[in-house]
Each structure stands twice: as C-alpha cells, then as structure tokens.
Please model this.
Amino acid sequence: MLREVECNLCHGREVRVIYPSTVNPQADQKFECDCTNDGHGEYYQLVRCRNCGLQYSSPRPDFSIIEDSYEEVQDEMYKEEVQGRIKTFQRNLKNIERYQKTGKLLDVGCSMGVFLSEAVKKGWQVEGLEPSLWCVQQGEKLFNLRINQGTVRNLKDLFKEEFDVVTMWDVLEHVDDPMETLKLCRNVLKKEGLFVFSTVDMGSLFARMMGKKWPWLMKMHIYYFDRKNIRQYLEKAGFEVLSIEVYKHTISFDYLLYKIKKLNSLAYSFLSLIRKTFPFLSRFYVNVAMGDFMIVYAKKI
Model:
C-alpha cells in the first residue's frame, strides 16, 4: 500500500534515508490526520533528496488514501480548544493587515472556519475550502459560515483570479504535491495578491537538536521544509517572498499537557501535579514558539 515518491521540488530520484520508518506494519494502518492527534514519533521513512536537499516521506500511502482520510476527519478536541485557535488567528490577522488592510480572502484547509470567523469580524469578505465534511458542518453550526467542501485540487473549479489574500495554516506539510498546491493558490490570487501560510521548519535549531525525537515527525506530515527550500518553492511557483518569521501557536494549558503526555512522561507528571494543585491553570493560555514552525508572507508576481 506504500509507494516510492520522487522529489517534488527538483524531481530527483536519488535519496538518502534520514530516519527509518517507525510505523508498525502489524498495527492498524489507518492514516490518522486530525490535527490534534497524538501520533508523535510515528512516521514513514524520511528521506533527503541528494540533489536539492528536500526532506519528505517515501515510501508513503497513495494520495487517494490520504485524501479520503482528510474527508473523514472528525476532531472534537479541535472544537474544545477553539479559544486557543481564536487567539492564534487574531494575531495572524493582525500581522496580515500590515500588508493588506481588508479585501477578499480565501483560507485553504480552513477546518471549522475559526480564522474566517475572525476575518469577518474585521470586515473581510471570506471564502473557505476544507476537505472534511464534519468540519464544514461545524463551521456552519458554530460560525454561520458557508465553507466549500473539497481539496486544493478543486480551487481551479471553484474560484477565479479574485482574491486579495490566500492563507493556509499548517497545511502545506500535509499535501501530496506542494508545488501544485502553491501554483493553484497563485492562480486564484489577484495581481500582486498576498499569500500567507504557516508550515514546519525542519532547518530550525530546535528541530536539528531534537533529531529523530522532534515531535513533529508524524505520519500525517509528508514534507519537511526549511527556509531555503520554501523560498525555492515559492520562486518556482511564481511568488516573491516578502518575509519569513517564527510562527506562534496559542494553546491552553490543558492542551499543552495532552501533547506533552506522549512526548515526555517526566515533564507530564510534573506539570500534571502543578495542574492538580492549581486548577485555575485550565483557564490559562500559552504561546508556543520553538522556532520549528514558520509563517511565510509572499506576493504573486
């Protein structure tokens, strides 16, 4: 069920294995892809292209399996942690407005539409695209949003060259073809339109120090970018890079505990004791910025 894949950036076929697969072939092979899943440390073989240096999973499941899995996503924990998402996206929107004050905005892979809801409050005209039917339904129920169900491949059928801004939050590392994804996003932007997205930064100091213990080595992450090759991607896709910065996620103290449980049992025990001693910590939110996620601002050229 796994297939070898050539480099998506330079089409090279010569690779070096970075980390062998940790996926247990005897276990359930369901492709877990809800964004709050705790499958840290479980990943398909990671390779590096000998020509350009891009790191990615190969062999990996066929794209049809991956796409079907995203369409079936139901993520109750995401809904429970919505306040942290709101805080993250309020900051993101404020940063976008350094470049573009208002206009028509498309969020690709928008989940339940939390970012879109915040943009509407600021006067933006919005559209969203999301593969999960459950997420689309939650967006209508929670935020009164009409979200288009589909994948990035549906962009050319749904939209024209009409958007001032296109965003993608923690999506690019999940897609089967990043280059096609970038080009499709470019095609729906107006001339000199703004493209803003976040993704992993495997070239960061934290990721390099952690090595194979880096928590974002996961089955659902297919590509592992750094700042050099993300610039190469964007230039080939027809963008000019404006800025690349460290990306911050805002999460609740309880969600932090949930993530740490799988990563470090000692830290989890210590923080759980603090949480039990001080129950009010459940109302606290923390900014997580280890440098291993980047936010990229680019302009269509």
Summary: The two ends are 39 Å apart (CA to CA). The longest strand covers residues 189-200.
